[in-house]
Amino acid sequence: MTEEIDGARPTMADVARIAGVSPALVSIVMRGVPGASDETRKRITSIADDIGYVPDRRAQKLRQTSSRLLGVTFDLQQPFHGDLVEHVYAAAGRHGYDVMLSAVAPTRDEGSAVQALVRERCEAALLLGSGVDATELAGIDARVPAVTLLRASGVDGIGSVRSDDVAGIASAVEHLADLGHTRIAHIDGGRSAGAEDRRRGFVDAIRRRGLESGARVVAGGVTETEGAEGMRILLADGEAPTAVVAFNDNSATGVLDHLVRRGIGVPGDISVVGYDDSRLARIAHIQLTSISQDVVALADAAVDSALARIAGEPVRDVVLAPTLVRRHTTAGPRLG
Predict the structure, then answer these.
(1) What DSSP line would sit under 87-128, residue for residue?
(2) Positive or negative, the Cα torsion across 212, 213, 219, 221?
(3) Are 309 and 159 in contact (CB under 8 A)?
(4) Where are the domains positioned within the chain?
(5) 195-225 burial string, b = 16+ CB within 10 Å, else e?
(6) Residue 302 carries which DSSP code?
(7) What CATH number labels 69-163+295-320?
(8) Can you give the pLDDT at residue 57?
(9) Domain 12-62 belongs to what topology?
(10) Distant-in-sequence, close-in-space partners of 126: CB < 8 Å, separation ≥ 6
């Protein structure tokens, strides 16, 4: 018969008292370390389950010399960050590490997200698409070894893992130019990580193909709303483009939605290219042509870089080559 615990949350001492063993032996069983027989383990875990005792994992981490935690900040508004985080979990697990997530949102700035990771004693921080400047980044790194993802760090001693965004956007322009498009626009990412490189890659590729007269860059951002607004501006001001390269897949879905609402065909009237090849791009009714960042390789390199920082090894920058994935939103321009 199970013994009752008066109202309060059951403790390790309660389990020990009911089992007739020492709290130290209960601790051995709960931590899964050698020192108890199989029979004793079964009896103690059964009693713990019966009275509702749950080990305090936070307290256990505080007692450890190493938390075995990697912290990750990510932007709630970017679907690609979720794709990347999924693979960071897998990469960290292969090294015996767990992952602590801390979101950046319109109501929660990056500083708050990082501070949460510091409080949880994360051994290193992976900053996805960080928007802080060099001074702020150096301050973060002084509290917890940092690695920036999806942007260069710009700070000596802080490594980064990213795709070659200049080459990525250039491949989108080359694809559209090869299809015969001469009026190509870019809805940029504003001040987001990677936006400057993607703008530069677009302009450079347009110049190489001699398409300057029909090219435009308009302000955008990371959200569907910003993509839709960029498309509205392009349609309202002058001759409409026959192809659009959006900053990311999220922005591109806003472009597609605006075109559908206006009765403009894709790709018949306007071709659309996204960036990231996130899960959005692969939805059956969207099938978006997009620039693919290798999320598995990015996650592996990010975790390797974080562990190198923890070990005090030399800092390195990792730049991976993106590739274009063609789906249903691009085709040659309509004749006439």
Answers:
(1) HHHHHHHHTT-EEEEEEEBTTB-HHHHHHHHHHTT-SEEEEE
(2) negative
(3) yes
(4) 12-62, 69-163+295-320, 165-293
(5) bebbbebbbebbeebebeeebbbbebbbbbe
(6) H
(7) 3.40.50.2300
(8) 62
(9) 434 Repressor (Amino-terminal Domain) (1.10.260)
(10) 70, 71, 72, 73, 88, 146, 147, 149, 302, 303, 306
Give yes or no for a contact between 185 and 245, defined as CB atoms under 8 angstroms apart: yes
Tokens 């928007």 -> residue: 131
The DSSP code for 9 is P
What's the pLDDT at 214? 95
319, β-bridge pairs: 162
Neighbouring residues of 261: CB distance < 8 A, sequence distance ≥ 6: none
Q: HSE, CB side, 13 Å, CA atoms: give it for residue 22.
A: 5
Distances (CA, A) of 107 to 131, 174, 191, 221: 15, 39, 18, 17
Q: Domain spanning 165-293: which superfamily? A: Response regulator (3.40.50.2300)
User: Which two structure tokens, joined as six digits, stand for 196?
Assistant: 């400057």
Region for residue 333 given its phi and psi (left: phi exceeds 0; alpha: psi -120 to 50; beta: otherwise): beta
pTM (predicted TM-score) = 0.77
pLDDT at 9 over 90: no
Among 19-28, 144-153, 208-217, which stretch is predicted with the lowest mean pLDDT?
19-28
User: Could you check whether 12-62 and 69-163+295-320 share the same CATH topology?
Assistant: no
Determine the 3-state secondary structure of 160 from DSSP.
strand
pLDDT of residue 283: 94
Residues 6+ apart with CB under 8 A from 149: 84, 126, 127, 128, 129, 130, 160, 161, 162, 298, 302
Per-residue pLDDT tens digits for 246-284: 999 999 999 999 999 999 999 999 999 999 999 999 999
